[in-house]
Hints:
With 439 residues, the chain is an all-alpha fold.
Amino acid sequence: MSAEQPEVAAPVPLPAPPGRSLVHHADFRRLWLGDGLGQLGAQLGNLAIPVFAVATLDATAWQMGALTAAESAAFLAIGLPAGAWVDRMRKRSTLISADLVRAAVLAVVVVVALTGHASMPVLYAAALAMSAATVFFDVAYQSYLPGLVGPTHLVQGNSLLQATQSVAQIAGPALGGLLLRVLSAPMLLVGTVVTYLSSAASVSRIRMVEQLPDPSSRRPLRHEIAEGLTFVLRHPLLRRVVACTGISNLSSSIAGALLVLYVLRELGLTEAQLGVVLSASAAGGLLGAVASSRLARWFGEGRVIPLAALMTPVAWALVPLADPLARTGVPALGVLAAGGVAFYAFVVVYNVAQVSFRQRVCPPALLGRMNASVRFLVWGPMPIGGLLGGVLGEHLGVVPTLWVAVAGLALAAVPVVASPLWRMRTLPGPGETTPAQTV
């Protein structure tokens, strides 16, 4: 590390002073707006594409699993080198480029679908291209925020961004479900194209100047990748968090591959009702984002992580329970919504705590590679989970596979429950491996 000069950010204007809301930080507002627009478009796309696959292309459980795998395959394929590449790039330019690529890919899907040439291989290819762009966007985004707002505002910044994501998850599926009653899925994707373009325009207005490291100080890519991966795996708390998140994402992808099939075919709900379920679920995410800072103060920054991890399998169990409960007269729509609200609330509380922790504990020069390493380890299992969900759905059935996902979520909590996090009120900062305060 001594041979590499860290990336230096010269923000204009300076990060918001301690105690002042980031609402007054002009550059953060531009990032916030851009992220909100992109999140809204992503939610429209996340509804339109699988509905199109199931309702128009008559996709099977295996095909839905393959589509889910393609949507995150790039995190497994290029997740590690992406961090080293991002550390060599201007992160604002990376964000803009990723938005433009995603807009272009979806525009192609719209044209292909409207001309009658759509097929599952076309959707697979589009999902792969989108996932590659998303790898670079997510790694750059999480590495950009600390230099943009300063370390004292990380929790606030992550909470605001998570809240915006939750609002988009509420508005997007509900709006999409209503629009799908009068528009085709390809026409709904046009809205996603517009939002990605608008996101790129907003991020392009950020004034913070980034100074790139001297190219002569670069070392072989494999050495830079190894630094980020080694930092993550050697940190005693971070590796436990990564293990929990990775197993959780594997399990969630098993369930996510079959969710649209489950709702539309097994439970017999409509596309509009699916949108209502997704929007109601996302309301839980908004609740979690709003409450995350307060819960961290009440229970402690460390303890809130295993607490949230323990509650996610309990909440998700309501999803497969909707099937037998519906046979007794309990409305499936209500059960699904209740489970979704609770599940997403705990997921967001967990995410705000662990993302803020890893941003704070990592040296600035390693942020891109650390975030990429974490994404590789926790998102890499997602395409495997998608494929596994498709296979299990074909052989075990949809509902038994959803119960497999519940068991996986319970297993995911073990690494953080059986850890010192239970005793920690304050998580360590850079260069620390033990907390400043325990109870």
